[in-house]
Design a protein that fits this description.
Radius of gyration: 17 Å
Largest sheet: 4 strands, antiparallel
Number of strands: 4
Structural class: alpha+beta
């Protein structure tokens, strides 16, 4: 008997795609990464070049999580109030907006 969960195969395929994307991005790193750390966290920040321009790749060695942000996504961080970041820290690895609150075009399995 195998124990699984609903959406297990989709999660597995998404993890494979994410790992492949990370490797593609890391292959186009420019310069040495910057490491920023304190007693709570450590992140590595790299500039990566894509066919659409430069992106900033932020990785967390401890969790294995990473994100690649374009200049507009980075700028959008400056538009946020401190409460936004507090909410993000208060719900680690979870979305700020639940699936029910998302516009239809951003929902999983959206047919629109």
């Amino acid at each position: 008997m195998k124990i699984g969960w609903e959406g297990e195969e989709e999660d597995r395929l998404a993890a494979i795609r994410a790992a492949e994307e990370r490797l593609r991005l890391e292959a186009h790193t420019t310069g040495a990464p910057i490491v920023i750390a304190n007693e709570f966290s450590e992140v590595h920040i790299s500039r990566v070049e894509t066919r659409n321009g430069s992106r900033l790749m932020i990785t967390s060695p401890r969790s294995g999580q990473w994100v690649s942000l374009c200049p507009l996504e980075l700028e959008s961080l400056t538009w946020q109030a401190p409460a936004t970041f507090s909410a993000m820290i208060g719900n680690p690895f979870g979305p700020l907006i639940t699936e029910d609150e998302r516009p239809p075009q951003f929902k999983k399995n959206s047919n629109t």
